[in-house]
Description:
Layout: H1 3-6, E1 13-16, H2 19-30, E2 36-41, H3 44-55, E3 59-64, H4 73-82, E4 88-92, E5 94-95, E6 100-101, H5 104-114, E7 119-123, E8 142-146, E9 157-162, H6 164-168, H7 180-188, H8 198-214, H9 216-236, E10 240-241, E11 252-256, H10 263-272, E12 279-280, E13 289-293, H11 300-316, H12 325-339
Parallel strand pairs: 2-3, 2-4, 4-7, 7-8
Antiparallel strand pairs: 1-9, 5-6, 8-9, 10-11, 11-13, 12-13
Helix pairs in contact: 2-3, 4-5, 8-9, 9-12, 10-11, 11-12
Bound molecules: pyridoxal-5'-phosphate (PLP).
Amino acid sequence: MLKPLFGTTTQPVILTSSGTGAMEAVVVNLTDPGDHVMVIVAGKFGERWKKINQVYGNQVTSVDVSLGRAPTIDQIKDAFRICPKPRAFFFQAHETSTGVWMNVREIAALVRALAPDTLIVADAISAMGAHAIDMDVNALDAVTAGSQKGFGVAPGLAFVALSDRAWKSRTPRARFYFDLEKERIGQELGRTAWTPGVSLIQSLHAALRQISDIGVNRFIEHHGRLARACRAAVKELGLELFVEQRAVSNVLTAIKVPEVLDGTRILATAKSRYGAIISGGQDELKGKIIRFSHLGFVSPFMLIEGLAALEFALADAGHHFPLGCGVTAAMTELRSAGRQ
Ligand SMILES: *Cc1c(COP(=O)(O)O)cnc(C)c1O
C-alpha cells in the first residue's frame, strides 16, 4: 500500500526509526568511505544529508542554494563541472525548513543526463502524500519517507525504497541496524530484522487504507487545493510568500513576516490565545517566517480554523487588514476548487 505513494513497483522497506534513520540507511547502504557525493543544501534538511555523508567519511560537494529558493539547472550543472561523476546525488523533494518544493522530475532528468551512473536519492519525507514522487517514472534510485508527515501517523517509522540498480550496487561498508538487505529479505517473508514498532505499523495500515480509498492522486490534489487556498489568504492579508513562485509547496506555506512585526510573538499569541500551533523559522529564519502546515489529513475546515487564528494573532500584533479577509479568500478558493 506504500508503493503508489512512492510511485514504484519495488517494495519499500519499513524501518522502526524516525525519518533521519531512513536517510542514514541510504547513505550506509549505497556509499563507501571516500566516495564523492553531491548534496543540494537549500535548508536544514539539505544540511542533514551533508552531515550524515561527512560523518560516514564521504567527500561532499554541496550546491548551496539561498533560503526560499530551489536549485537552478545552472547551479547543478556548475557543481557537476567540479565533481563530474559523484557516486550519489542527494536532495530534498521538499525542504521543510523553508517550504521549498524542488522539481523532482526536472532535477532527476538533469542529473541522469549529466552523470548516468550517479545514484539519485530523494528525501521525500515531508513531500510524500502532498506531491507526486513518481519514483519509477523519474528513475530515482532511493526515496525516503516517514510516518509522522503526510501519513498523519505518530513519529517512529521510516520508509526506504531502492531501485533495482540501487539494490544491486550496495556497498560493502560496515553497517548493522540499518542493513537494508537484511530487512528486505525478512520483510518479504513477513518478518523484520529487529523488533518492529507494531502499534505504529497498525496505525500506518489504517492511514494507508484511508489514502487508498481516497486515491493517491486525489489525496495529492487535496493538498494542492489547501495550498492554493492558503496562498490566496496570504495575498489578501497583505503578506508575501517566502518561497519563489516556481517552488511553492503543497506541504506548507512559508510566509514572510513583515519587518515591523515579531514573528515569534505572533506565533506564541496564536498558540496561547487562539489554540493554534503554527511553526516559525529555525536559526537565521527565526521570527522571520511563518510555516503554515497543511499536511497530514488536514480538512478544509481545519485550514480555515488555522487561518482564523493566524488572523487574530496578526491583528493583535498590529498588522492592518480587514479581519476575516484571508479566511474569505481561502473559502472562496476552496469553493471554486470544490466545484470543478
Ligand atoms: C521531518 C523530515 C526529516 C526527518 O526528520 P526526523 O525528525 O528524523 O523524522 C527529514 N527530511 C525532511 C525533509 C523532513 O521534513
